Amino acid sequence: MDTYDILLYGAYLLIIVGAAVGILMPLIKSLDNPKGLLKTGIGIIGIGLIFFISYSISSNEVLPKFEADPFNLTPGLSQTVGGVLTTTYILAILALVGIVFTEFNKAIK
């Protein structure tokens, strides 16, 4: 095990700890305000719906060169990756539209 492996495992650990804290702390804080939990739940359901739609329209086609080693890509994994990429594109476009709308709204007021 060389330095790169140790640093990668350290990075994985920090990502897991950061994700856990990023998810658990707002939930703990939201227990004081249940309406905040409702908004969070609606947001999670919305992202799940976007992923479901993206997954449904994604292709499960795998090129022959990706079926063998070292990729071992299956049709299900290919469709999942396509769904995640499409979800990312949709959320990025929604974020940009939101930023532009907010700036125009501030400029008008």
Short recap of the structure:
The protein has 109 residues and is mainly α. The protein has helices at 3-30, 34-57, 64-67, 75-108.
Structure, described:
The model has no long low-confidence stretch (mean pLDDT 91). The chain is mainly α. It has helices at 3-30, 34-57, 64-67, 75-108. The protein folds into 2 domains: 1-32; 35-108. Helix content is 83%, strand content 0%. The chain crosses the membrane at residues 6-25, 37-57, 77-101. Keywords: Membrane, Transmembrane, Transmembrane helix.
Topology:
Elements: H1 3-30, H2 34-57, H3 64-67, H4 75-108
Number of domains: 2
Tell the overall outline: extended
In total, the number of strands is 0
Order of helices and strands: HHHH
Oligomer: single chain
Averaging pLDDT over every residue, what do you get? 91
Please describe the biggest sheet, giving its number of strands, its sense, and whether it closes into a barrel: none
List unreliable stretches of 5+ residues. none
Share of β-strand residues: under 5%
- What is the end-to-end distance? 59 Å
Keywords: Membrane, Transmembrane, Transmembrane helix
Transmembrane segments: 6-25, 37-57, 77-101
Salient structural properties:
109 residues, mainly alpha, 0% strand, transmembrane, membrane
